[in-house]
Design a protein that fits this description.
This protein is mainly α. It has a domain of about 70 residues. The protein contains 16 helices and no strands. Helix 11 runs parallel beside helix 13 and helix 15 packs antiparallel against helix 16. The N and C termini lie far apart (about 55 Å).
């Protein structure tokens, strides 16, 4: 337990660090010694919400460059996407999105939970990373793409305007792995090509280019 205390005590909330630097340092230590992630996974499920948020952030930092190291802790992260504290949810969802390509079958099995975060969560950031997760999952293959595309299209209709560019971007992977869906994806690009927001126009044009 001494080792666990040492690792946890280095996290931002435990050192009084108001920046991400302490958590980034811990993430580097975990990449060098992946067994330390077991202790971070334990911290993820602690009642201390600041500690849990730090641990979720460490998983995100690790998954950004070494998703295969974070993937074994998918179960803990999937529990945490429903956490009562917003930061824990968004960091956990970000980590889940980053590892989704490594374990598509596991993420596919909890697709209803990802959709719940997308359409029901009060946090914009959680929704953003839910879209990222769906996009990465859809890019894994044609079977996944055929299931994910209707969800993204539903998002275009039901979610706020601020999510449009991310939803269109998430469709780019579908165009690359599923020729049979290319025409449908292309149509969505054309629908938003002249949108009033430049970010949406940009995403739509990238989608059109990928689907042609």
């Amino acid at each position: 337990m001494e080792e666990r205390g040492t690792v946890v005590s280095m996290l931002s909330s435990q050192t009084g660090d108001s920046t991400q630097q302490s958590n980034e340092h811990v993430a580097l230590l975990c990449i060098e010694n992946p067994t330390l992630l077991r202790q971070i996974a334990e911290g993820l499920l602690q009642s201390d919400v600041k500690l849990a948020g730090d641990c979720a952030e460490v998983f995100t930092k690790v998954a950004e460059t070494h998703p295969q190291l974070a993937a074994p802790y998918a179960e803990q992260l999937l529990v945490s996407i429903h956490h009562k504290h917003t930061r824990v949810r968004w960091e956990s969802m970000h980590a889940v999105a980053l590892i989704s390509s490594s374990i598509p079958n596991r993420i596919f099995a909890v697709l209803d939970e990802i959709q719940e975060r997308l359409f029901s969560d009060q946090s914009t950031i959680v929704k953003d990373y839910s879209i990222l997760c769906l996009g990465k999952l859809a890019s894994c293959g044609e079977a996944e793409a055929k299931v994910i595309l209707p969800i993204l299209k539903k998002g275009l209709l039901q979610l706020e305007e601020k999510f449009l560019s991310k939803l269109l971007t998430a469709m780019i992977g579908i165009a690359k792995v599923s020729p049979s869906l290319a025409a449908e994806v292309l149509a969505n690009g054309y629908d938003y090509e002249t949108h009033s927001k430049s970010s949406v126009q940009k995403a739509a044009k990238k989608l059109i280019k990928a689907a042609k």
